[in-house]
Write a structure and sequence with these properties.
Rossmann fold; alpha/beta; binds beta-D-galactopyranose; six-stranded parallel beta sheet
Length: 341
């Protein structure tokens, strides 16, 4: 009898353990939003920053109670026609909410019209649609919002990181001006436009005189960044005092070009990026990059998922959900890295 009770208890424990295990599996149907379908469109999977972003977004959605099987993330391959097709497919599939990182911000009006007509709530991320477009969502009371940071702030911080070094340190040729080159992201993207403009504005506002030796588009891409900086170093040599890159991927390319040209960051050239990719933070710590700016993919992806949930629950959502950038220099790079673990 005693033996039977023990084996019964054992079976019971096993069954209970089996049920308990289900709750932790993102693929199971037990979470609060497990039956809700989320469609996520990313402009391009090969983008380093957007890879961090989409990984965090998926994990966070699962932690909120969505099922992994009902979260579909697609790669727009940097082609608006491809992405528009993907959005159409999500509409046909009847997703409950869409999270879209548009290939072209200028296509937002077309995308919004398609999605609103299908009565699906829409969260734009990373590439901010125009203010006029945002006005339209507000005026019409549509379930559409944008989650992202103000790129002006990241540009300003880049300029400040350089300016804080002081003219004596930066002005290697002693002509009283800061000679720089600019490596831009995709110019259709407001992040690229603002970072280019506001990094330099911050220097000028601090009283520096600047001299642009070259300004090229590297499309957020490491290889293109490397080529642009290698060419600029070949053309302008020691005249280049500062390299501004609109993001870290291109700055990582710049580091390779700077090393190949026999130059040393912190000694005879200065380099800043944006994003605070792990590699970039490590380079800031080792001194191979002057600084970067933390583009908080965690706050942004969580903000986007939280908006999606509010839409699903029928709650009010703000048209614009912002977040702050953080300046990253040798002083706090390790702290930023630790916070990302
Ligand atoms: C920026 C980011 C870049 C790139 C771009 C894509 O915010 O700094 O690295 O990911 O978004 O739109």
């Amino acid at each position: 009898m005693k033996k039977r009770i023990i084996s019964l208890a054992l079976v019971l424990t096993m069954v209970l353990a089996l049920f308990a295990g289900c709750g932790n599996d993102g693929g199971s149907a037990s979470g609060e939003y497990a039956d809700k379908k989320v469609g996520v469109c990313i402009y391009q999977f090969s983008d380093n920053f957007m890879t961090l972003y989409r990984t965090e977004l998926e994990n966070y959605l699962i932690s909120l109670g969505f099922s992994k099987n009902n979260i579909t993330i697609v790669d727009g391959a940097n082609d608006q026609a491809t992405q528009t097709n993907q959005i159409q497919n999500f509409i046909t599939d009847g997703v409950d909410v869409l999270i879209i990182n548009p290939v072209n911000s200028s296509s937002a009006a077309t995308i919004t019209d398609m999605v609103v007509a299908a009565n699906i709530p829409l969260v734009y991320i990373n590439r901010e649609p125009s203010k006029e477009e945002q006005e339209r969502w507000k005026t019409n009371g549509w379930n559409v919002c944008y989650v992202g940071c103000d790129a002006r702030q990241s540009g300003t911080m880049q300029g400040e990181i350089i300016g804080d070094l002081g003219l004596d340190k930066i002005d290697l040729n002693g002509d009283g001006k800061i000679q720089y080159i600019m490596v831009e992201g995709d110019p259709e993207n407001i992040d690229a436009q603002y970072r280019t403009e506001f990094s330099i504005k911050a220097l000028e506002d601090a009283g520096f005189t600047v001299d642009c030796l070259d300004d090229q588009v590297g499309n957020w891409d490491q290889v293109q960044g490397q080529t642009i900086v290698a060419n600029a170093l070949a053309a302008h040599g020691n005249d280049i005092e500062v390299v501004f890159c609109n993001n870290d991927a291109m700055a990582l390319g710049a580091i390779q070009a700077i090393k190949a040209a026999g130059r040393t960051v912190g000694t005879d050239i200065f380099l800043v990026g944006v994003d605070a990719l792990t590699e970039a933070c490590e380079y800031v710590i080792s001194g191979e990059m002057t600084g970067t700016v933390f583009n908080d993919h965690i706050a942004q992806s969580h903000g986007a998922a939280d908006c999606a949930v509010k839409f699903i629950k029928g709650e009010k959502v703000d048209i614009y959900v912002g977040c702050d950038y953080v300046k990253v220099t040798k002083d706090n790079a390790q702290k930023i890295l630790d916070s990302l673990k």
